[in-house]
Amino acid sequence: MDGRTLFRAFRDGGGGNGMSELVRLTGVTKVYQGGITGALNGMSVTVERGEFTAIMGPSGSGKSTMLNLVAGLDRPTSGTIAVGGTDLAKFSEAGLARFRRDHIGFVFQFFHLLPNLTALENVLIPAQLKGNPAPERARSLIDQLGITEIADRYPARLSGGQQQRVAIARALINSPTLLLADEPTGALDTHSGEQVMELLGQLHRDGQTILLVTHDAKLATRHAARVISVMDGKIVDDARLESPERAPSEVIRVRGEETSR
Ligand SMILES: Nc1ncnc2c1ncn2[C@@H]1O[C@H](COP(=O)(O)OP(=O)(O)OP(=O)(O)O)[C@@H](O)[C@H]1O
Ligand SMILES: [Mg+2]
Prior knowledge:
- The protein is α/β, with parallel strands linked by helices.
- It has helices at 3-11, 63-70, 93-103, 119-129, 135-144, 160-172, 190-205, 217-223, 248-260; strands spanning 21-30, 40-48, 52-56, 78-83, 86-87, 104-107, 178-182, 209-213, 226-231, 234-240.
- The strands form 2 sheets. The chain has a 6-stranded mixed sheet with strand order 6-7-8-3-9-10, with helices on both faces. The protein has a 4-stranded antiparallel sheet with strand order 2-1-4-5.
- The protein is globular.
């Protein structure tokens, strides 16, 4: 299946797996070469379109492995991973690369910006790979993420929080079906981390499906609507938060806005 067929499957609601299902892992295991125990040991879970899900668990529990498999950056040892109703095993390596380019946005802990490109040029990379340079969209994403003034700066001259916002804009430039973030606040100070999580929350409210790995329980419960706990490569808890926890100051601010309307 090529990227275009897959895109049709996405638009049609995921190939008969239910209208709103976006990701399905079924009995997924991953044993790395030389690994004694599996990094994933039979993981089954579904993620609905529009969900903001946090994945939590101790170091080495398999969180990054899970995210990398969903992104099509690596393949499982057994089990299946379907995104938009398509089994990723059907893709060749080139097909997986197209799938990532067209459907996945990935944000990393250490940003991974190219140092010899400006912020704006970094944001444009995925669009250029797609043969669809989109300078206006890049500018508007940069504005939306509140980093207009640093668009023409090189990464070395940006703070961690600014670099992460550039990386988020880059992850969003091709309007990915799924945004994956592996500890995006892990290298940031508390304030910048909170800002990045606020941005992810806003993207979620605008309809973006997000799978986030974090060590920060407070940030996870405050911003995500679902928390999956992973241990030893297995899901040990899966909680949908009916009303996400809010910091008191935030609740009061929201109430104030409501009453003033
Ligand atoms: N490329 C690799 N080759 C071999 N083993 C790996 C590789 N990547 C991860 N592992 C092992 O797989 C297990 C799960 O690793 P993973 O990176 O998924 O954990 P994690 O939950 O993301 O941990 P952390 O919170 O420290 O980032 C660990 O035991 C790790 O050592
Ligand atoms: Mg990890």
